[in-house]
């Protein structure tokens, strides 16, 4: 038996912010969407998310621009699927799990999805009109990103999430148990042989689980670079710098200081 992880995520070629009914959204500019595997660089993703959270916490200016830079590199967070059930596309009501964005409880599917498709008339329950051939993701994923609809996320919610994530970098040890658990799903795949397939329902879930693994690692891999002070994931327990460049610059400055 093999344990497989499915994490392919959609990223648009460009994003902008646009307002609707007083709420500013991060919106894809075109229908050109690319799929990539965030797990190939999950700790770079985690480090970038934490450094963004730190910047947003410490600075009032440039927040929108920095969030857009992150989204252009990785895509939207997938908040819609992260805070509710994976069968969002088949029930007229959905359960909203405990989260930092909105009140939990039972809400109508149409009212819930309107918060993420503010610029389109979207019937999330309507069957797809064409097959996309993306076998290992649910129908709701295809509707979100690959059906030509503008799945969008409130800028304020995104800022709140990154600041929330970073807050646990400076939190007391006992506070870590309050970190919202990542939303993961799994299934048994028997197409060729019996495999357990773990699916991340969102980019946010990948970040959250990477953080949970890092803070429970006895090697304490999340560190601050000795030169530039950026947060980075140390694959080597001896690492003190986020990059060879920072290590070299630190040594140059240290050498100059001796003369």
What does this structure look like?
Mean pLDDT is 86; it is low at 131-135. The chain is an alpha+beta fold and 259 residues long. Helix 1 (42-58) packs across helix 6 (155-167) and helix 1 crosses helix 7 (203-215). The strands form 5 sheets. The protein has a 3-stranded mixed beta sheet with strand order 1-10-9. A 3-stranded antiparallel beta sheet has the order 3-4-8. A two-stranded antiparallel sheet has the order 2-5. Helices cover 33% and strands 20% of the residues. The chain folds into 2 domains: 3-216, no CATH class; 222-259, no CATH class.
Question: Helices and strands, in N-to-C order?
Answer: EEEEEHHHEEHHEHEEHEEH
How many separate structural domains?
A: 2
Would you report the number of β strands? Answer: 12
Question: Approximately how much beta-strand content do the residues carry?
Answer: 15-25%
Biggest sheet overview = 3 strands, mixed
What is the helix fraction of residues, given as a range? 25-40%
Q: Helical region count?
A: 8
From the alpha carbons, calculate the radius of gyration and give it in angstroms.
Answer: 20 Å
What's a quick, concise take on this entry?
Helix 1 (42-58) packs antiparallel against helix 2 and helix 1 (42-58) crosses helix 6.
Task: Give me some keywords for this one.
259 residues; alpha+beta; 2 domains; three-stranded mixed β-sheet
Topology:
Blueprint: E1 3-6, E2 9-12, E3 15-20, E4 23-28, E5 33-36, H1 42-58, H2 63-74, H3 79-82, E6 93-96, E7 105-108, H4 109-114, H5 139-145, E8 153-154, H6 155-167, E9 184-189, E10 195-200, H7 203-215, E11 222-224, E12 231-233, H8 244-257
Parallel strand pairs: 1-10
Antiparallel strand pairs: 2-5, 3-4, 4-8, 6-7, 9-10, 11-12
Helix pairs in contact: 1-2, 1-6, 1-7
